[in-house]
Design a protein that fits this description.
The protein is mainly alpha-helical. It is 53% helix and 0% strand.
Length: 81
């Protein structure tokens, strides 16, 4: 497990940001909703994301955004809805 997967984390973070904005939620509102600090969410959504996050957090995020978790893994920019 020596390989870093930061590019995947970065793409997931960008999808989270797009979906959060689509739902008209600020970072502060959304971080409270999903139970993490605003600074942690900011790092997850950053274009240069270097934060790892858990599957549990992704499940919570998808639940609060009312989406299928698969949408977070859709890396075709035009298809993230």
């Amino acid at each position: 497990m020596g390989k870093d997967y930061y590019e995947i984390y970065k793409k997931i973070g960008q999808n989270i940001k797009k979906l959060r904005i689509k739902n008209q939620l600020t970072q502060q509102e959304f971080s409270k909703l999903i139970g993490i600090s605003c600074s942690y969410l900011t790092k997850i959504e950053a274009p240069n994301c270097d934060k790892k996050f858990s599957l549990e957090l992704l499940i919570v995020i998808s639940d609060k955004l009312n989406i299928d978790i698969k949408e977070l893994f859709n890396f075709d920019e035009e298809k993230v809805t």
